[in-house]
Amino acid sequence: MTYHPKSDFMRVMMERGFMADCTDYQALDEALIQGVVPAYIGFDATAKSLHVGSLIQIMMLRWLQKTGHKPITLMGGGTTKVGDPSFRADERPLLTPDQIDANIDGIKQVFAKYIDYSDAPNGALMLNNAEWLDDLNYLDFLRDIGRHFSVNRMLAFESVKSRLDREQSLSFLEFNYMILQAYDFLELNRRYGCLLQMGGSDQWGNIVNGIDLTRRVLDHEIYGLTSPLLTTSDGKKMGKSQDGAVWLNADMRSPYEFWQFWRNTTDADVGRFLKLYTELPIGECDRLGALEGSDINDAKIVLANEVTTLCHGAEAAAAAEATAREVFEKGGVGDDLPTLVLSAADVGDGISIVQLITRAGLAKSGKDAKRLIAENGARLNDAPLSDAGLMIDAAALADPIKLSAGKKRHALVKIDG
Question: Is the dihedral of CA 348, 352, 353, 356 positive or negative?
Answer without folding.
Answer: negative
